[in-house]
Amino acid sequence: MSSTFPHERFCDHCGAANPLDAVRCWHCQTPLTAPQEEPGAVLVGRYRLLHGLGQGGMGTVFLAEDLHLGRKLSAVKRLYKRHLTDQERAVAERAFQQEAELLARLRHPGLPTILDYWSEPEASYLVMDYIEGETLEAIQQRVPQQRLPLEQVLDWGQQLCEVLIYLHEQQPPIIFRDLKPANVMRRSSDGRLLLIDFGIARHFKPGQTHDTLVFGSPGFAAPEQYGLEQTTPRSDLYSLGALLHSLLSGRDPRHQPFRFAPLRQLNPEVPEELARLIAQLVELEPKQRPPSAREVLKRLKPLIQQPGISDGEPSQAQPSGASPPKQALAPTVPAGPFVNVVGQSGQSNPAHARRLRLLQQPGISRRSLLALGLGLGGAVALPLTIVGIKILLTQLARQQTSAATASILVNPLPLLLTCRGHNDWVTALAWSPDGAMLASASSDRTVRLWDPRHGQTLRVYHGHRSSVLAISWSFDGIYIASASTDGLIHVWEAKTGLPRLSYQAHHGPVTALAWLREPKSSVLASAGADGLVHIWNGLSGQLIFTYEGHRGSVRALAWQPGNSLLASAGDDSTVQIWEAVSGNRRLLYRGHRWSVTCLAWSPDGDTIASGAADTTVQVWDPNSGQLQQTYRGHHNTVTGVSWSPQGGEIASCSYDNTVQVWYSYIEMPLERGQSYAPQAIAWSPTSTLIATGDQNALVEIWQPS
Known about the structure:
InterPro entries: Kinase-like_dom_sf (IPR011009), Prot_kinase_dom (IPR000719), Protein_kinase_ATP_BS (IPR017441), WD40/YVTN_repeat-like_dom_sf (IPR015943), WD40_PAC1 (IPR020472), WD40_repeat_CS (IPR019775), WD40_repeat_dom_sf (IPR036322), WD40_rpt (IPR001680)
Binding site for ATP: 77
Radius of gyration: 27 Å
Number of domains: 3
WD repeats: 419-460, 461-502, 503-546, 547-588, 589-630, 631-662, 671-705
Region (Disordered): 306-334
CATH topology of the largest domain: Methylamine Dehydrogenase, Chain H
Protein name: Protein kinase domain-containing protein
């Protein structure tokens, strides 16, 4: 095992991977427990703990010596259960026992051998052979540009295919579900690779439509591992492709999950056949990936056996030191669509005019277009202005893959001021109806009211006893409703901070709040992790109606302006529009593939923008469900979306550390700002100011130009 801790730690509550220095899980906001090290402790009179080796998905791993076998070194994995609830403990113990049972019956040179297993009231223990070596992650970090030699990666790819074949051909198949460099150990004695950390491995269950729990490491985990489809052996193949891409390119997929730049652009030594194979492995649709690990190995072997493979010849005629061949870029935009471009050159509208202006900007050269992934292929001979008028803008938005290339087109979003006062994540934001004040909620259990012009704190509400997740102003601006992870909702006066009432009917955290946007209305909607939406009187606490249409947590709520139609969205990947009084559902929108995290109505109530874990913001018609555009400017979960007061622009934020402003009718960012994992965004209802709240406990006010 590695002698150092890895660069991420896992939440015992939901399994999400977090930075090593994180104190709270980004996904479920559960506090993260520190690794427990107890040097010198002797377990069951036999295993003396020496020091910590690392932290995995289900516990902490120690180096230990076996006092019964001549001080033979072993690895002891401990699941610490003291901080878990009864339900969480049952789930964790089941997963831990599953790891023990899986390893106990598996025999393969690419898998660790289990030696012992037992459980105690506060902890469970698993003893395995100690593997002296280091992880591929540690090896990769020592290499210049984090790029490994082709010959070495091919050998590792073959070894990983062999162990995946063994797992996937068990009856029923075993899916590892967490293949990444940090979970692959290279043994020092013989260079053999071994998979470590089987805490989230599972059996494939034919006929099951989706997994019951979300597990995996962002960047390496397949899209279906986010809970809406069942993981299959092809999920491990996706992770294998992400791992191989990372080792050959030096790019960490955790920075831009689900987006892999063409491999030969990053490393010209990679043979075309290998680049095609890896691109197929990381296809979002499981059916588009190779059918099995055996098939992947079959395609790898000719590359391994190819003489001089380590020399990496991009093309037979290419001289030494030459740039990669341009045709490597061409597949990003097939030649076919350009035929239609010529036939439609007479069309004209504002969007086309903006595209034409874009082409006329200095510095937008063909080289820049190629850098953005817009290889013209067989259409190179077409006039560039025709390409730009008809297709350039959409393709630019779809093909942007890095901040460096995006900066060619996108202006920086001016930061006006930073509001400091919270000491934990800012989780939610809400402007007062007149735009004079801004409210922010935080995991520090407080709600703060700010003067957005000067960044001064006007008031702090201390009524909550746990993390505050949601806030909303009443239509008249007199009251604020705030909700927390303990399921408690407070309604209090914004001017004085005096409480009006408390409401507790949800089972678990309350994740969203929304006052009805009508004069003299006291109707309040609340949603929670229990999957329910409550409609109730925010001034009396009387429950009016409970909506039960969602499967899974409800993440977002929004009222149609001037109407009693409510839109709700959540982990079932749907947005549902329904009548608040009767619960009659008007529309079920299924455009997103994964959890819908945020939504907002346009000011005129004619359009909805919804953001999701699939990294997109979708703009669509709430009456017909017809998609009007998909914004693909983000590269990680979209955490917030908000319309400008006039409805022409949309602001969105994401875990990709960006705040972006873009036209609601054009797939092109106008301005982009940098913020550390922004959790929430809100556009002032009366001005051009945009507020964001992030994991650095900051509230930032932006001034779009």
